[in-house]
Every structure is written in C-alpha cells, then in structure tokens.
Amino acid sequence: MRSTSVRRQQSHGFTLLEMISVVALAGLVLGISLVNWPHLRARAESHQAASLTRTALRQARSLAVHLGYRHWVVLEPAQRQLRVFADADHDGELDLDADRVVERIPWPPGVRLALPAGTTQLGHPTLNMTLVHGVTEPGGIAVLDDTEHHVLMARPDGAGRSPDDRRGLRGTVLVYSSSGGTVNAVVLRTEGGEISTFRLTEDGWVPA
Q1: In Å, what is the CA distance from 130 to each residue of 88, 135, 184?
Q2: Strand 121-123 vs strand 130-132: parallel, antiparallel, or unpaired?
C-alpha cells in the first residue's frame, strides 16, 4: 500500500508555472523567427533563382548533346522567367515564335537579374579580377542586367555561347540579387560548357 501511495504522489502533471514558461519560450522563438523571416526568404529566393538557371542551362546542354541540335535558354527578366527552346526546324537560329518551348521556369518575384542596388562592381566569382556590371572585362566575361531578354545557346558539342553578343566572349556571369541584399551568381564557361553557382559572402564568393 505504501509503494502504491508513493507512485501516485510522484505521477503528477505539469504545474501552471511550468506551462507558462513553455508558452513564453515558444512565443520568444516564434518572435525571433518572424523578425528574421524576410531576410531568410530573400536569401532562399536568390539561391533558388540561381539554382533554377543552372538547372535550365544543364538541361539545354544535355538535350543539345543527346539530340544533336541546338537548344537555347532565354532569360526574360521583365516576365521573371526563363524558357528553354529547342531548334525545332533545325535551322540553327532561334525563333521565339516558331521554335518549341521545352520548359518554362518562373523565378521568385523578389529577385532581380542585376547587381545589388547601389553597387557598380563586384569581384569576379572565379577569376582574380573585377567584374563590372554590363561591361566586358579582360578574359571575356559578360555580365547581364535585367533590361531585356538574354539568350544563351547550347551546342551539340556541349559548348555554350551567347548569340546576342558578337564579341567572342568566353563566358557569361548571371548575377541575381534580392531585396534583402543577398547575391548569387551563375557562371557559364562557353568553351567547355561548364556551369557553376556561387553566393556572395562578406569574405567574397563561395561555391553554392
């Protein structure tokens, strides 16, 4: 009888003070999360836009190699989207009206295909050089802004190229920036078709 009585005394629920403490702690955690949510969402959106672009470029390259004819990735900043086209008539030229759309990919509305507001230049993600937005630098890197649509081409040999630029550039850097100040970049090496993504930190660019 005594042991049963002891067990009954030990098996009790939470006290009012304990429940109030748990609720207060949960409220504090929720409040911190809500304050940081816009920044966290902006960081995720910038990274997502870069990842979607990398996926589209890889898809276009893979299709071009396996099917044996050209594919294009068309970035349309005003529509906040990119589209993958196949050279349906095999004439080697992009026709937005006639060529087949393989895929349409929207990117997050809070992201721009541009440098962050108030920024005129950034260090290059892969080379020890200055990357100036919209200006061709030594080494053949073109940086696109969000003023019009841009076209990147994938050839059957696996290489890439920008048919809109006739200056023989060896690569393209796509810079995505969010309203929260986060920056991601997609680097396309046209000669080998290499595609990489980076994010900008306080210490510079790091692979993403």
Answers
A1: 39, 11, 16
A2: antiparallel
Question: Residue 74: CB partners within 8 Å, gap ≥ 6?
Answer: 82, 83, 84, 85, 94, 96, 149, 150, 151, 152
CA distance 21 to 64: 61
User: Could you count the other beta carbons within 10 Å of the beta carbon of residue 73?
Assistant: 26
Instruction: Give the model's pLDDT for residue 138.
Output: 45
Give pLDDT < 70 ranges for the chain. 1-14, 28-43, 128-149, 160-171, 190-193
φ/ψ (deg, to 5) at 36 = -85, -10
pLDDT at 29: 67
6's CB contacts (< 8 A; 6+ apart) are: none
What is the pLDDT at residue 33? 56
* Residue 181: per-residue pLDDT: 75
d(CA 145, CA 11): 67
Q: What is the pLDDT of residue 85?
A: 92
> Cα separation of 116 and 113, whole Å?
9
Write down the pLDDT at residue 139. 45
Residue type, 63: L
DSSP string computed for 34-75: HHHHHHHHHHHHHHHHHHHHHHHHHHHHHHHHHHSS-EEEEE
Task: Answer whether 172's CB lies under 8 Å from 141's CB.
Answer: yes
